[in-house]
Amino acid sequence: MSQTLLPRLVATILLLVAWQAMALSGLLFRDVVPPLQAIASGVGGVLGDSGFYANLAITGFELAVALVLGGAGGLIAGLALGGSRFLSQALERWLNYLGPTPKIILFPVLIMMFGVGAGSKMAMGAVSCFFPIAISVAAGVRGVDPKLLQVGRSLRAGRLQMLTKIYLPAMLAPLVNGARLGFGVALIGVLLAETKLSNQGVGFLIMQAYQRFDMPRMYGLLLVTVAFAAAVNIATDRLAIRLRGSRVRANK
Amino acid sequence: MSATRWQQAAPALGVLLIVALAALLQFAIRADWVDGYTVPLPSEVLASLPRLFVEEHVLARFAMTAGETFAAATMALVAGLAFGIVLYRWPRLRAAFEPWVAVLAAAPLVLAYPLFLVLFGRGPLTIVVIGFASALAPVILKTVEGFAAIRQVLLQVGRSMRLSPAQEFSLILVPAALPHIFTGLRLALVFALINVVGVEFLINLGGLGQLIGELSERYDLPGTWAAIGLVVLVSVLFFVVLDAGERRLGRRR
Question: What's the complex ipTM?
Answer without folding.
Answer: 0.82
